[in-house]
Design a protein that fits this description.
Blueprint lengths: L1 E8 L8 H8 L9 E7 L2 E7 L13 E2 L5 E9 L2 H10 L9 H12 L9 E9 L4 E6 L8 E4 L3 E5 L2 H5 L10 H10 L13 E2 L4 E6 L2 E6 L13 H19 L6 E4 L4 H13 L5 E7 L7 H11 L2 E7 L7 H8 L8 H12 L4 E3 L4 H5 L3 H11 L5 H18 L7 H4 L1 H6 L2 H9 L4 H7 L2 H6 L4 H9 L8 H28 L3 E3 L5 H8 L3 H4 L7 H6 L6 H4 L10 H6 L3 H8 L2 H4 L6 H13 L5 H19 L1 H9 L10
Parallel strand pairs: 13-14, 13-16, 14-15, 16-17
Antiparallel strand pairs: 1-3, 1-9, 2-3, 4-5, 5-6, 6-7, 7-11, 8-9, 8-10, 11-12
């Protein structure tokens, strides 16, 4: 894992100062503490911070070039099957100075141009400067596991792994993107291609960018397809799931540094640990975190799996004082980010980094095999779509009452409160209602008239509806998964693990996000993924006899933090101080009375408003760090140090 950045000027005579590239690069020292480098040529500058994983020798230093130096690359990520292509390139006359995956990309580009992306199996973001053509070629992996931000003003292209590196450019002013803030309040994250900063965009997953002849062009190169469906039996499907996932795990265990695994005790991470134990010559190292609140603690399940496979297991308990690191997390996340599981994920990565430099996880299991409670809720809603709207609404009320009696405990009970609304809405709108945090009604009350006039209120719901029709998704299950894989996965889950792991200089790898594995799973019939009563049906069937039944058939908990308890206790005062401060209110975004109402309802226990309040709190902390205190941020960012912005 690494941090990359660069400056490309339209005019070759517009020299790039090396000190400026270094300034941008060193805002991301946490992403690559082991080494660093720059390349500067006519009108171009590339910067790189290195976390050494493959070929630890100096020969692995970046930027890296071809034999004559006419092609230069900065690369962040892993190209898992690079060794298969290396020999092919040697046979075609290419010479290698290192054993890295990075150098293989350089020579693949020489042979295939942008077609090199079709050969790459991995997670990555990279930029290649082709001096002969005076062209910059930038690309991001298919699932968006690695980030890539850019800013284009018609004369100069800036790019980086994190916005803070672009903000370190001297004449770049940090201003909020109001449309991004509107989408953030709806979703809890900023969707691609938007960023929270005016003038900065995200390169979407599965896309590449070409800078040439004074203009930029963006092209897609991959789209997950859900058809045509495979004609396959249950036994064969189970065998293929195990075989393909084993191959994916094996590829991600290749490393020149110690490798471990994140273990929550859910089926996804447990399946990865089970396969790692088969493939590893020694004991696998596993890591988990928990809470004293039972609704949020899964460590007992993780212990069960660790004992089953004889792993070297490590645990950590997160206390409420974990919020002391909030300012640090805000600095690392760069954009407002409202997923509370960022807290335990940071601690999980921190615990793992004390023992290993690479850790595998179970990310992608829910998105591949339909594992979320919302999938069941929306599938139920689709069954009554033929009913008149009043009858659908009444059915939702009845099911919500049953859900209160028999549904999941803890934070997952949120879904019972929106069952009536979900059943009342059409299919596309119903899934949007399950995904958003502040719904359309809430946003209309929350937003000030001035903010409401400047944004498109329906942008998030429109995006969800568009994604639900992508990739040939023509049934309810595939439509939900198309949305999750196109939106929630890259812009929420992948952001969470990339930032949390890079904050502690740990590399995380996700076997279930191997694109070849996902292409197979996507084409399985929908009934293999979920039925009315069973989610992840084929995955559970495939791991019968491998994983304990108490893991395969346990109640879904997810991975979060007990902020509902914290906001009613020791953090209620902190919440009011931040959201109702003069600085916050004078910004003019939101309706003060509505915020006061949300706080009062949650503290009194009449409603569960913690997700909404966390959403607003993270936005406020982001605004204070990157916008209000921009001058202080710039000073610290230029030095690659977050301490000064965390000292407030």
């Amino acid at each position: 894992m690494c941090g990359i950045c660069g400056i490309a000027n339209v005019a070759p005579e517009a020299r790039v100062a090396p000190a400026l590239v270094e300034r941008m690069r060193d805002t991301m020292i946490h992403r690559g503490p082991d080494d660093c480098g720059i390349y500067v040529g006519p009108g171009i500058g590339l910067g790189h911070r290195r976390l050494s994983i493959i070929d630890l020798r100096p020969e692995g230093r970046q930027p890296m070039a071809n034999e004559d130096g006419s092609v230069q690359i900065v690369f962040n990520g892993e190209f898992y099957d690079f060794a298969e292509h290396r020999q092919w390139l040697i046979d075609r006359g290419h010479h290698f100075r290192s054993l890295t995956d990075t150098e293989v990309i350089v020579h693949l580009y020489e042979e295939l141009g942008t077609g090199c992306l079709e050969r790459m199996r991995g997670m990555f973001a990279f930029a290649i400067w082709d001096e002969r053509q005076r062209m910059l070629f930038m690309a991001r992996d298919r699932l968006g596991q690695k980030p890539l931000f850019y800013s284009w003003n018609g004369k100069r292209l800036l790019f980086a792994s994190e916005p803070k590196a672009i903000l370190a450019y001297p004449d770049f002013a940090a201003e909020p993107n109001l449309q991004a803030i509107s989408c953030y309040t709806a979703l809890g994250y900023v969707p691609s291609p938007l960023s929270a900063f005016k003038g900065i965009s995200k390169l979407p997953p599965g896309h590449y960018l070409i800078f040439h002849d004074g203009r930029i062009e963006i092209h897609p190169y991959w789209q997950l397809r859900f058809g045509p469906k495979l004609k396959i039996g249950t036994v064969e499907a189970c065998e293929e799931v195990i075989r393909r996932l084993s191959e994916s795990v094996r590829l991600r265990m290749v490393s020149d540094v110690p490798v471990g695994a994140m273990l929550s005790g859910g089926i996804d991470s447990s399946a990865v640990v089970a396969l790692m134990s088969r493939l590893s010559p020694g004991r696998v190292r596993t890591f988990s975190v928990g809470f004293k609140e039972p609704d949020y603690d899964e460590t007992a399940y993780a212990r069960t799996v660790a004992q089953r496979f004889g792993t070297q297991h490590h645990e950590f308990q997160v206390e409420a004082d974990a919020l002391a690191i909030l300012d640090k997390l805000v600095w690392h996340y760069n954009e407002p980010y409202a997923d509370p599981s960022a807290l335990p994920t940071y601690y999980l990565c921190k615990v793992a980094r004390d023992h290993v430099a690479v850790a595998l996880n179970g990310d992608g299991g829910d998105e591949n095999f339909a594992g979320y409670v919302r999938h069941s809720v929306n599938l139920l809603a689709s069954y009554v779509g033929w009913m008149p709207q009043p009858m659908r609404h009444a059915t939702g009320i009845v099911l919500a009452a049953l859900y209160r009696l028999f549904g999941p405990a803890g934070r997952l009970k949120r879904h019972r409160n929106i069952l009536p609304e979900t059943f009342r809405l059409d299919r596309a709108d119903a899934y949007a209602a399950l995904l958003v945090q502040f719904n359309r009604f809430h946003r209309e009350v929350l937003f000030s008239p001035d903010l409401a006039r400047q944004v498109k209120m329906s942008a998030s719901e429109d995006l969800i509806a568009q994604l639900g029709r992508s990739g040939g998704a023509n049934n309810t299950v595939d439509s939900m998964l198309a949305v999750d894989i196109g939106l929630y996965l890259p812009d929420d889950l992948m952001v969470k693990f990339d930032i949390a792991s890079m904050a502690v200089s740990l590399e995380t790898r996700s076997p279930m996000l191997d694109h070849r594995f996902m292409e197979f799973v996507a084409r399985l019939p929908a009934r293999f993924k979920m039925t009315t009563v069973t989610r992840k049906a084929i995955l559970k069937r495939a791991f019968r006899g491998i994983l304990p039944n108490e893991i395969l058939y346990r109640r879904k908990m997810g991975f979060g933090a007990p902020i509902d308890h914290w906001f009613r206790g020791e953090l209620s005062g902190y919440l009011r101080d931040k959201l109702l401060s003069r600085r916050s209110l004078e910004r003019g975004y939101f309706n003060r009375r509505f915020i006061e109402q949300l706080i009062a309802e949650h503290v009194a226990g009449s409603h569960q408003r913690h997700y909404l309040l966390w959403n607003l709190l993270m936005l406020e902390l982001w605004h204070q760090t990157f916008i209000d205190d921009a001058a202080r941020f710039m000073t610290s960012a230029a030095a690659g140090d977050s301490s000064s912005v965390m000292s407030r």
